[in-house]
Amino acid sequence: MDNPQPEPYDLLGVGIGPFNLSLAALADRADGLRTLFCEARAEFRWHPGMLVDGARMQVPFLADLVSLVDPTNPWSFLNYLRDQGRLFPFYFAERFQLPRREYDHYCRWAAERLPNCRFSAEVTALHWEPEQRLYRAETATGPVPARAVVLGVGTVPACPEPFDRLAGHPLVWHGAQYLERRAALAGARDITVIGSGQSGAEIFLDLLRTRGADGTRLRWLTRSRALAPMEYSKLGLEHFTPDYTRYFHGLPGPARDRLVPAQWQLHKAASAETLAQIHDHLYDRTVGRPLDADPVEIVPGTEVTGAQAGPCGGFELSCRHRDSGVRHLLRTDAVVLATGYRAVRPALLDPIADLIDWDEQGRYRVDLDHRVATAAALTGGLYVQNAELHTHGVGAPDLGLGAHRAAVILNAVAGRSVHHLPTRTAWTSFAPPTAALLPRPQEENRAAAVR
Predict the structure, then answer these.
(1) Which helix (H) or strand (E) holds 230?
(2) What radius of gyration, in Å, describes the C-alpha atoms of the chain?
(3) Element (H, E) at 436
(4) Which residue, among 266, 269, 270, has the nearest Cα to 394 in the 3D structure?
(5) Beta pairing partners, 360
(6) Which of 119, 133, 143, 278 is paired with 56 by a 20 to 30 Å CA distance?
(7) pLDDT (tens digit, 9 = 90+) per residue, 410-440?
(8) Which pLDDT tens digit goes with each residue over 107-158?
């Protein structure tokens, strides 16, 4: 007797980071939908190498898995506090931004309890079965059929090309590994941190606190011309609303590609609080001695054009000052690359790669519902989370839009409004006035003649 085929899931999530976890939490209360989320790792972990003591989130606690869509949802951060017996301590703490460690623990609390989350279940390949009009995901425990798939595989550490030759060196590594490899810096007497974002600021501050008193030279080097803080004004934050996402998505592709790097201060800068803590620490440590006696260097506007092992140990970094063009050689014992993350095409897509409509740069074409454009033969929905910066703008990696995006995807998969979403979310009108509301040139001329 043939084994019965398993009932297909309405939605299969690949990867369980905060964004797919948000979707899993919202789907948990969606009647009539069968969902499953698979993760290769044995447990939920959120940037474990950057859970530095004192580090805080850059978004308010309401940017949890569900609250900005469904504040009554049992997977909210406030319900987590209630479960942990911490509501009153949180109330008296008066903290709008959470410690990173607490956000990680909250997500693990949800991931361990959600019935649609499965860990140690890597999806190794994704196939399309046209006869059944289903995806077939290959996993270690067998195939999983699904009508739609959402990719939430996250991003990978981005290391600048000049450091390719030093890949794997025990004293040159990405900041994503900071806590697990910090002890390797014990013998270094000259440490260089590269990158001006929040991770770079937090690593530099931690090194000031842990190595600042032993005479080690600490250097913070960045391509950015200024260590400017993250934009955090109330109207500036409206760039992280669905309104701005819709506006950005409607721009021509070349305009979007020009705009994203120009908006670095919206999503890649360090918080003003962390920068202030660095300055306070530097101020306090130089009381009673001249500034030029302090073995600390902060060097903005400088890019590394080459890197190699030094002839007498350590490393030689070829640098160029961006404003003046002056080049110099920098010698250091260790390098921590706080140089961000990038999206990659997961190998599991190889079996259906020819059915995906890639853009000219090999990226996904993604519609407003976060569905990837595919060939007509592939009728099942393929969605992405945090792989659409080029189509949806600076809000794509932001946790504050995570619940909204998850609800958009869930509504699209269900074909109904599982979660009601607001039609307007910002005071700012990002697009120009509609052409129909503007006087035509001949009307302007006629009005000028009358005057």
Answers:
(1) none
(2) 25
(3) none
(4) 266
(5) none
(6) 119
(7) 999 999 999 999 999 999 999 988 655 555 5
(8) 999 999 999 999 999 999 999 999 999 999 999 889 999 999 999 999 999 9
Structure-token pair, residue 163: 């450091």
Amino acid in the structure at residue 431: A
Q: Where are the alpha helices (DSSP H) in 48-133?
A: 77-84, 87-93, 100-113
Q: Greatest CA span in the chain, whole angstroms? A: 91
What CA–CA distance (Å, rounded) separates 350 from 420? 36
Q: Can you give the length of the chain in residues?
A: 451
How far apart are alpha carbons 333 and 113 in whole angstroms? Answer: 45
Residue 133 contacts residue 380 (beta carbons within 8 Å): yes
Please, are residues 202 and 179 in contact by the beta-carbon 8 Å criterion? no
Q: How far apart are CA 178 and CA 197, in angstroms?
A: 15
Distances (CA, A) of 364 to 14, 348, 359, 397, 403: 16, 15, 6, 16, 21
Q: Is 324 exposed, middle or buried (0-12, 13-18, 19+ CB in 10 A)?
A: exposed
Question: What would the two tokens of residue 94 be?
Answer: 């008066």
DSSP bridge pairs for 303: 320
What DSSP designation does 426 have? -
Sequence letter at residue 146: A
- Alpha helices by DSSP H, listed for 148-296, are 178-181, 198-211, 242-249, 253-262, 264-267, 272-285
- What is the rounded CA–CA span in Å between residue 373 and residue 386? 16
Residue with tokens 């920068």: 275
Rounded to two decimals, what is the model's pTM? 0.92
Within 13 Å and on the Cβ side, how many CA atoms surround 154? Answer: 17
DSSP state letters, 138-149: EETT--EEES-E
Q: Are strands 11-14 and 149-151 parallel, antiparallel or unpaired?
A: parallel
Collapse the DSSP code of 442 into the 3-class scheme (helix H, G, I; strand E, B; otherwise coil) and give the result. helix
